[in-house]
């Protein structure tokens, strides 16, 4: 639960910093996170038990890239805004969230 | 003859003393050949973990293996190392998941996650519709 709340706080803040003030956009960011974050954490939790792959940084980075792409597609579909700016937003939001997670949960 | 023996004996004593009382730490860096050859049984997942120690033969300061050692679903296969650390191999037992509480839990948690994801996707679709209007 804490990773989800942290991720939501960081990503909504980044969206606000990038000038996305519309309630619909911020709601979109929250909903997109509610799709990707539980799935990612559930997958990592399963991995800790079943050991599908090692939790080497490169694997985590690849998973994060996948999250960026999924969030980008969902944001583009839901918000119908410029896909380039939404890709940039998704990349920055997830990069900051990823680095914070690495520092806090190392 | 007697002098040569005395010199050789003295030399052996000096070398032995140097090795024995040397302050440098010894590394037993001989690779355990079993570490390369031993494999888990077919169908079992193999994991390799590392551990290290600051002091030679001292307590482990970093230990990736702890989580496998404490998990009854894994068993120790083989290990090798030096005085400052090493590596161990563990195997995840086939079907071990079925005997744990986790087995029942991960399906329930998976269901909750699927529900959250589903509701969020539906809400996103509604957002999309609202965005058109």
Main sheet specs of chain B = 4 strands, antiparallel
Q: Roughly how much helix do the residues of chain B carry, as a percent range?
A: 40-55%
**How large is the count of helical segments of chain B?**
4
Q: Approximately how much beta-strand content do the residues of chain A carry?
A: under 5%
The radius of gyration of chain A is 14 Å
Helix segment tally of chain A: 4
Overall 3D form of chain B? elongated
Listing every helix as H and every strand as E from the N terminus to the C terminus, the arrangement of chain A reads HHHH
Would you tell me the overall average pLDDT of chain B?
A: 78
Largest sheet of chain A: none
Describe the structure.
The complex is a heterodimer of chains A (106) and B (133). Chain A has 106 residues and is mostly helical. Chain A has one domain (2-104). Chain A is 84% helix and 0% strand. Chain A has four helices and no strands. In chain A, helix 1 packs antiparallel against helix 2 (23-50), helix 2 runs antiparallel to helix 3 and helix 3 (57-79) runs antiparallel to helix 4. The mean pLDDT of chain A is 87. With 133 residues, chain B is an alpha+beta fold. Chain B has two domains: 25-94, no CATH class; 100-133. Chain B contains four helices and four strands; from the N terminus they run ααββαββα. In chain B, strands 2-1-4-3 form a four-stranded antiparallel β-sheet. In chain B, a hairpin with a 2-residue loop joins strand 3 (74-82) and strand 4 (85-92). The longest helix of chain B is centred in the last third of the chain and has 32 residues, at 101-132. The radius of gyration of chain B is 29 Å and the shape is elongated. Chain B starts with a helix and ends with a helix. The mean pLDDT of chain B is 78. Classes of the chains: A mainly alpha (106), B alpha+beta (133). Chains A and B meet through helix 2 and helix 3 of A and helix 4 of B.
């Amino acid at each position: 639960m804490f990773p989800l709340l942290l991720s939501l706080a960081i990503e909504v803040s980044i969206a606000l910093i990038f000038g996305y003030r519309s309630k619909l956009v911020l709601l979109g960011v929250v909903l997109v996170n509610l799709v990707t974050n539980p799935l990612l954490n559930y997958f990592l939790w399963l991995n800790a038990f079943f050991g599908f792959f090692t939790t080497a940084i490169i694997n985590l980075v690849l998973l994060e890239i996948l999250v960026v792409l999924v969030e980008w597609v969902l944001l583009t579909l839901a918000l119908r805004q410029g896909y380039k700016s939404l890709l940039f937003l998704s990349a920055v939001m997830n990069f900051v969230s990823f680095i914070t997670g690495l520092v806090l949960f190392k | 003859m007697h002098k040569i023996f005395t010199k050789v004996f003295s030399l052996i004593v000096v070398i032995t003393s140097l090795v024995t009382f040397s302050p440098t730490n010894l590394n037993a860096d001989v690779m355990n050949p079993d570490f390369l050859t031993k494999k888990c049984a077919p169908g079992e997942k193999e994991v390799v973990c590392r551990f290290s120690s600051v002091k030679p033969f001292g307590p482990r300061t970093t230990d990736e293996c702890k989580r496998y050692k404490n998990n009854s679903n894994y068993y120790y296969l083989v290990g090798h190392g030096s005085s400052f650390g090493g590596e161990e191999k563990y195997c995840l037992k086939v079907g071990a998941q079925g005997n744990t509480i986790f087995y029942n839990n991960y399906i329930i948690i998976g269901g909750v996650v699927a529900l959250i994801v589903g509701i969020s996707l539906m809400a996103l679709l509604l957002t999309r519709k609202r965005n058109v209007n």
